[in-house]
Amino acid sequence: MAKHPVVSEDDLRELTVDELRNQAKQAGISHNADMRKEELVSALVAAAGRKDGADDSGREGDDDESARGAGPDGGHIRRGSETSRSLKYSQEISSPDDEPERPGRSLATTHHDVIRAWAEARGGRPATVDGSEHGDHLGVLRFDFGDDTPNLRHVSWEEWFATFDDRRLNFLYQEEKTDGRQSTFFRLENPEREDA
């Protein structure tokens, strides 16, 4: 893959959406046709960062933990023709350093480290619903919070996130309820289809 010059965010914002999509295509960013301008800018900045220290698989060659756990969309939410109202009104969390604006706030992310930390803080383990598989692919993604939920099969974080990213899902969740108690509410949404 050809090396592309690193361009600043400000320079990218000066480009038209079509020019950004062209650059995204050249940088190997898939699903760019549904991205809005800010999403394209973020994806291009993230791709430029990966090219500086990563091999073609997207694994970082340096110690930048934040970039390593961001996922292919840099932690930013994915949008599409079926984006829900819930997602539109959720606060985007694109880094482990982001904080909810208030208790009970609806949040959304694609950042792997944010999702994993949220689940593990609640005793959650990555799982899939047995019997919902599609051939060799995982079925419905869930977390096992130890509630003796039937039909859950534990999977690795790598499998869970690979499926999450392949399906272009968003993670909608709450850190805490409005009364301040920890929340285990979450929902996965595919902005391309109503049924995730």
Please name the defining characteristics of this protein.
four-stranded mixed sheet, disordered N terminus, alpha+beta, 196 residues, 7 helices
Topology:
Elements: H1 9-13, H2 17-26, H3 37-53, H4 65-68, H5 85-88, E1 91-92, E2 107-109, H6 112-121, E3 125-129, E4 141-144, E5 152-154, H7 157-166, E6 170-173, E7 186-189
Parallel strand pairs: 1-2
Antiparallel strand pairs: 2-6, 3-4, 3-5, 6-7
Helix pairs in contact: 2-3
The percent range for strand residues is: 5-15%
Strand line-up of the largest beta sheet: 1-2-6-7
User: Which residues sit in consecutive blocks of at least 5 with pLDDT less than 50?
Assistant: 1-6, 50-66
Number of extended strands:
7
Shape: globular
Q: What structural class results from the helix and strand content?
A: alpha+beta
Write structural notes for this entry.
By secondary structure, the chain is α+β, with helices and mostly antiparallel strands. It has 2 domains: 1-68, no CATH class; 78-196, no CATH class. 31% of the residues lie in helices and 13% in strands. The chain contains 7 helices and 7 strands, in the order H-H-H-H-H-E-E-H-E-E-E-H-E-E. The chain has helices spanning 9-13, 17-26, 37-53, 65-68, 85-88, 112-121, 157-166; strands at 91-92, 107-109, 125-129, 141-144, 152-154, 170-173, 186-189. It has a 4-stranded mixed beta sheet with strand order 1-2-6-7. The model is unreliable at 1-6 and 50-66 (pLDDT under 50).
